[in-house]
Amino acid sequence: MVEKARLEGKGVNPAVVDWAQALRVTLDQKKCQRGACTKESAGESFILAYVMAILLFMAILLYGVNVMSSVLEEKKDRIVEVLVSSLRPFQLMLGKVIGAGAVSFFQFVIWGVSARLLISLRVPIARALGADTASAQTMALPHVPFATLTVFMAFLLGGFFFTPRCSAAVGAMSSNEQEARQAQQPVTYLLMIAYLSIIA
Q1: What is the mean pLDDT of residues 53-82?
Q2: What letter would DSSP give residue 64?
Q3: Strand pairing report for 36-38 and 31-33
């Protein structure tokens, strides 16, 4: 070892160097908050934040594109003319936002239930794939505090009510899909700014 050679070169007793290097200290990292401690590390918190940001970005962007495509299709097929004759524009927009939002929220529920099911069946899946079952047993979902979950849901609902209105406006002012994709870019840039701000 380089350290041992350098210390011996400075006149340190080789036995003392061997004794000092034989002592290994292992530390357990724990995250303590309000009297409760978990084994969650800073790296796990960082990864959890990134995963939540990616989920938010994907869900809100896909949801906005769905609303834009729906508005564009109704406009192209002249369905909106029939709908506006019996509904106020605000009611039409609210129905579209709530309907598409419910579909996206249901998709989130499916993702969550699927992830939970895969985690609960991790050992049989690892055995079927021929992987190490010992490492599969230690794998678990990270602890998500209630405050973090509340903030995530607030951002999700905020994005679900803000982005589709912008996307619906893009769909209403465009005459075809290609125009709508180009006009959607400023809305996507707003989402990108919010997504990239997670680095801070």
Answers
A1: 81
A2: H
A3: antiparallel
